[in-house]
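stage 2 :: seqdesign
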């Protein structure tokens, strides 16, 4: 199982970090060890002084595939949720300056929080998904999937040109504006529409 993540996929977020709008999806990965197991606490990593939350829609791959065309992409995932792509922003800024890979900032243990999955029924509107993140009960991120620069189906097409997709893989589809710092004691709660799908306390 692998975790594939898209970066810079919402215009407002690209701007808030001072990056350029990409002309094809920005892709990175997290290993299996990055997945925070349920009922496991999240501890603030000792190597960073600037831990950021990034709330994102997460897809669960349900079919093996390679070179998947956009028009067939919706057959390759069967459930969605929201999650957090935890990021050590200070480390990432250093790595970006040096032109180095992002893994130390993005792929560390427990850096991928994944909520409870919602199975996709035929009447579920995959093109317009509202999601949000509360930090200590205050809304800090809110967006609709239609605001993605690269839609879910285009992401699947692009990823599968490079990496085979396998059943059980997870795809993080990028974060909207509003990313920010979190500290010990903060509680992060993620929603699709009004449904709470995860709650994580930083220990
Ligand atoms: Mg992200």
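stage 2 :: out
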């Amino acid at each position: 199982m692998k975790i594939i993540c898209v970066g810079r996929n919402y215009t407002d977020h690209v701007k808030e970090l001072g990056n350029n709008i990409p002309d094809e999806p920005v892709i990175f990965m997290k290993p299996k060890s990055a997945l925070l197991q349920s009922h496991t606490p999240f501890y603030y990593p000792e190597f960073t002084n600037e831990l950021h939350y990034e709330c994102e829609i997460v897809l669960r791959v349900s079919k093996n595939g390679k070179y998947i065309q956009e028009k067939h992409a919706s057959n390759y995932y069967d459930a969605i949720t929201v999650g957090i792509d935890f990021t050590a922003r200070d480390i990432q800024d250093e790595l970006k300056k040096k032109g180095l890979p992002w893994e130390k900032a993005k792929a560390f243990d427990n850096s991928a929080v994944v909520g409870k999955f919602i199975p996709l029924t035929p009447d579920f509107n995959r093109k317009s998904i509202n999601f949000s993140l509360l930090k200590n009960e205050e809304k800090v991120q809110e967006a609709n999937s239609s605001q993605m620069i690269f839609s879910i189906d285009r992401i699947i097409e692009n990823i599968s040109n490079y990496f085979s997709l396998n059943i059980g893989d997870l795809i993080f589809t990028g974060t909207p504006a509003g990313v920010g710092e979190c500290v010990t004691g903060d509680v992060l709660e993620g929603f699709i529409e009004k449904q709470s799908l995860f709650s994580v306390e930083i220990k």
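stage 3 :: structure notes
- DSSP finds four helices and 14 strands in the chain.
- The pocket of magnesium ion is lined by residues 5, 7, 54, 56, 85, 174-175 (CB under 6 Å).
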